[in-house]
UniProtKB/TrEMBL annotation:
Transmembrane segments: none annotated. Residues 112-286 form the D-isomer specific 2-hydroxyacid dehydrogenase NAD-binding domain. The keyword Oxidoreductase applies. Keywords: NAD, Oxidoreductase. It comes from the Bacteria. Gene3D superfamilies: NAD(P)-binding Rossmann-like Domain. It holds the Pfam family 2-Hacid_dh_C. InterPro entries: D-isomer_DH_CS, D-isomer_DH_NAD-bd, NAD(P)-bd_dom_sf. This is Phosphoglycerate dehydrogenase-like enzyme. GO terms for molecular function: NAD binding; oxidoreductase activity, acting on the CH-OH group of donors, NAD or NADP as acceptor.
């Protein structure tokens, strides 16, 4: 806490802070830093605002003395795996929040667009157009096709509702199997994943990256899929063993993929995914629609006011699970 009794807030960003930073500065003393300045700015701060999921050096900058570490860390993204290092997780007095709820509907629309693009071969149409080729061909219907959505949180649920409205048959994959789910109908538990993959025409990954989900789509999972199936990943690149996916696509054991996230971002120029047929590559943008930064700012400002008033925060992350759970979500 500063000498004026205001919280000391460190805002970590890549040069693009949240919109209207003066609104934050009216409530707290703010230090704007990049990763190279974080170690010097962080000791003694009350709050750390992490401006996205692309920062990898937070653990190296973290104060060795827990008394000098922030009491609240907010991540301006949904995924928080980059801040779940031991010192932060073990600190029982530290609250971690994220930006759950900002991206749900935008990502759901993006997934529907990707599935339509794959079914209608829109990449092929655009390629023929660039070459001025008039090449007639047939495309596929999406109505009645089976979709398995891996990840049953708010983003996965928004995807399920969007795809169901478009006429696809939707089921889910999560930690615990169940029937009668309002959005998914049937949710398959972890032990049922391989069988569920074999029934799906489209597999959509929208799960958080945790020790349990890392590499969930490996060679064994890919072999369980139908050769006519397509994979859509809007979750995290680490959910997929990328080399195994490339091999499956090259061998024709999978019909295609639409990938918005990757093990390494930006995707290296020499990655075979750029040129493989039936693959759509996008630069981690599924949820980034006009106005998303303003929505991020409003969420953080609401939580900052709650923090100052001693009220419960929104979107509290269960640090052991790695995501906002029902018992850690706040009001």
């Amino acid at each position: 806490m500063s000498a004026m009794g205001r919280p000391l807030l460190v805002a970590l960003h890549d040069g693009t802070p949240l919109p209207h930073p003066e609104r934050v500065e009216a409530l707290a003393d703010v230090r704007h830093v990049g990763e190279d300045g974080l170690a010097g700015a962080l000791p003694g701060a009350d709050v750390l605002l992490v401006g996205g999921a692309g920062f990898t050096g937070i653990v190296r900058a973290w104060p060795a003395d827990p008394a000098l570490a922030p009491r609240w860390v907010h991540v301006a993204a949904t995924g928080v795996e980059h801040v779940l290092f031991d010192a932060l997780v073990r600190d029982s007095g530290l609250t971690l929040t994220n930006s759950r709820g900002i991206y749900d509907e935008a990502i759901a629309e993006y997934v529907l667009g990707l599935i339509l693009a794959l079914a209608k071969d829109l990449p092929g149409t655009l390629a023929h157009q660039r070459r001025r080729e008039w090449r007639w061909r047939e495309s596929e219907r999406i109505g009645g096709r089976a979709v398995l959505v891996a990840g049953t949180g708010p983003i996965g649920r928004a995807i399920a509702r969007q795809l169901r409205a478009a006429g696809l048959r939707v089921s889910g994959a999560g930690r615990t199997g169940r029937s009668g789910d309002p959005d998914f109908g049937t949710v398959y538990g972890g032990g049922e994943l391989l069988a569920a993959l074999g029934e799906a025409d489209y597999i959509v990954l929208a799960a958080p990256l945790t020790p349990q989900t890392r590499g969930m789509i490996d060679e064994r999972a890919l072999r369980a899929m139908k050769p006519t199936a397509r994979l859509v990943n809007v979750g995290r690149g680490g959910l997929v063993v990328q080399d195994a996916l490339v091999d499956a696509l090259r061998r024709g054991r999978l019909a295609g993929a639409a990938l918005d996230v990757f093990e390494e971002e930006p995707l290296p120029d020499d990655s075979p995914l750029w040129d493989l047929p039936g693959v759509i590559v996008s630069p981690h943008m599924a949820g980034d629609v006009h106005g998303w930064r303003a929505a991020q700012a409003e969420l953080f400002l609401d939580n900052l006011r709650r923090y100052l008033a001693g009220r419960p925060l929104r979107n509290v992350v269960d640090k052991e699970r790695g995501y906002v759970s029902g018992r850690a979500g706040g009001p």
